[in-house]
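Protein modeling request. Please complete all fields; requests missing the sequence field cannot be processed.
Requester role: graduate student
Desired output: 3D structure, token encoding
Chains: 1
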Amino acid sequence: MKLLSDNNKISKGVAFGYYTQGVHLSPYKKSGRNVCPWASKGCALACLDTAGMGAFSNVQQSRIKKTNFFFEDKQGFFCKLVKEIELAVKRADKKGLTPCFRLNLTSDLPWEGIRNADRKTIFELFPNVQFYDYTKGFSRMKAFLDGKMPSNYHLTFSRSEENQAHCEIILALGGNVACVFRNQLPKRWQGKRVVNGDESDLRFNDPQGCIVGLVEKGRAKKDESSFVLN
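Delivered output (230 residues):
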């Protein structure tokens, strides 16, 4: 069972000189274990888990197996992840690309608090490698903005229909907020510049204090919860 993979979105990084790999777990409570503790109803319904290769049952089963592996044997999962990252870094070097990793492609786990048997985080084991994620965890995002996260771990706050107040705080503090829009992206939202988040997934290269705009896709096109902004 391979932990790291890519998808159409993160593969766009190649055009910008990056080789991106990430971990696809079974989102929210789909596996019977909650890997998205801050998910809203709209977020859960609009999740891109079934997009692309996720539409196939064998891929869904693989994601459930990986999720169970994580919860049942965290140390085993961690060790396997380390080995796969090492191989991915070498592969990127051969391709002349810069490696980067998104460990929460379809989850929102606090990787800054997950440690191996030696009490090391994945960020400490790969201090020169860039990691990044989206999160709906306000405390996690606040810690990132306060400089309390690993220096090689970048976070973008993710808007839902339930966390508008938190979005405004994050923007006021200079953080970036990802928002899903209907049909097309506006030039500005909440008085902030909107950058096109669909061009690539390289969020750590975004200007500070902006809106990361994403056009609705898949099941999000049927959203009626206000998760998608009109």
